[in-house]
Amino acid sequence: MDAAALWQRYQDWLYYHEQLGIYVDISRMSFDDAFVERLEPKFIKAFKEMDALEAGAIANPDENRMVGHYWLRDSNLAPTPELKKEIVTTLEKIEAFAADVHAGRIKPDTAPRFTDVISIGIGGSSLGPQFVSQALAVLHPALELHFIDNTDPAGMDYILDRVQDRLDTTLVVTISKSGGTPETRNGMLEAKNRFKNLGLDFPKHAVAVTGYGSKLAQTAEDEGWLAMLPMHDWVGGRTSELSAVGLVPASLQGIAIREMLAGAKAMDEATRIHDLKTNPAALLALSWYFAGEGAGKKDMVILPYKDSLMLFSRYLQQLVMESLGKEKDLDDKIVHQGIAVYGNKGSTDQHAYVQELREGIPNFFLTFIEVLKDRDGTRFEVEPGVTSGDYLSGFLLGTREALYEKRRDSITVTLPEVTPKQVGALIALYERAVGLYASLINVNAYHQPGVEAGKKAATDTIALQNKIVQILRNTLTPLPITSLAEKAEAPDKVETVYKIVRHLAANKRGVELYGNPAEPGSLQVTLKG
Prior knowledge:
Layout: H1 3-13, E1 14-17, E2 22-25, H2 33-54, E3 58-60, E4 65-66, H3 81-103, E5 116-120, H4 127-135, E6 144-148, H5 153-162, E7 170-176, H6 182-197, E8 206-210, H7 215-223, E9 227-230, H8 244-253, H9 257-271, H10 280-291, E10 299-304, H11 312-324, E11 341-343, H12 354-359, E12 364-371, E13 381-383, E14 386-387, H13 388-405, E15 410-415, H14 420-440, H15 449-473, E16 479-480, H16 481-487, H17 494-506, E17 511-514, E18 524-527
Parallel strand pairs: 5-6, 5-7, 7-8, 8-9, 10-11, 10-12, 12-15
Antiparallel strand pairs: 1-2, 2-15, 3-4, 13-14, 16-18, 17-18
Helix pairs in contact: 2-14, 3-8, 4-8, 9-14, 10-14, 11-14, 15-17
């Protein structure tokens, strides 16, 4: 395509949101008009399905739940007065709690104010809050925010050691809808134990963000925690950033949560339009469908050219991959759908993998996230008339052009600056794009049977571990691995049994292994004492 035609294509396919100042450019995706025409019936269906979703249709049949994250930023859309009141009341509670903490009306016993927050959660209860925290961090936040987002003991120790000297002025926010998520429960118990060891009263520092009547809510009530702020059962984890899940940590950090909600609301209104070329989320969904032929054949590479947006790709990994990665479609046909997402930031990763993106296997399409405003404060020129920000912009534009020369497709999403309103809009844009794309490929974006299967397998492994330890306690002589597996009624899980006892032995849990580690089948297992 010659330069004049390419410039015209850019103008024909450029979307601009006047209120938000956000651009979406899909002109470097190499679809043609015939492809767009073929997809129009699918988009007509997708728009109608999104309307039904917002109106309160049961979109998560596994749990018989509505999917209502859109109502969080416009409570007038809620299908009942009771739900509207719940949304409004929850937001008011979050703001009042944060204001009381900031003003010192809610305070620790030993100081006039809290100084730090440890947010404990996993998946959707952590990825969104971490992304927003880094994207909108200020030099001197109202409270320093830290995250425990895994059940790795060393990782938890690292966070707890960092705030050890300020633990007496630290809030602990535990985020879990059911209260039974093992990783989150473990993090809460580890934190609770650290407070106990320092002679601190944990409930006076503890906040729960959880569902009504959950195990965590009951614990918070029984122990007299500072607050319990509700998670709604019609909000899924990966779309929960603009619920109490994300708004509680953000408000404590001092982020303007009403602005985030306003940005999301404005983007929701734009992505509700039943017209492909004037709906930015539909333009993204169209591009994704074209890139992967409606079957996820290409990966989605995300390159934000802004350090503060570095975690956006991690946030999108869950939103996109958990929503779209499905074995079966809505007609119960085996389809193995999904789009793999990876990325970090530009221009750092130009030095890491742009070589392959330009000249290697063409198994991806790329999304550049551009931010027009370079910095706050005084401009500094690294060369006469040239700033560091000019270089950043130049690297983005140059990489985009270099990839296009090699017929590598790309999308560019441009923000005027990184503010709470822009971040809220960015979240809403991708939430809607995922919903529309799911309809195009006929899968349910709002359930996650694979995740539940993984959780069940982990629970079964812990049960097997407990059984193994009990067998070893009742056995006087060392047992071969195969015999131990048979006694545990798990002869088909010999490898798992071996890895369990190896883990216990490595952590000095009383298990000893005798024999050659290079030949696991020859090992004998016993329990000391």
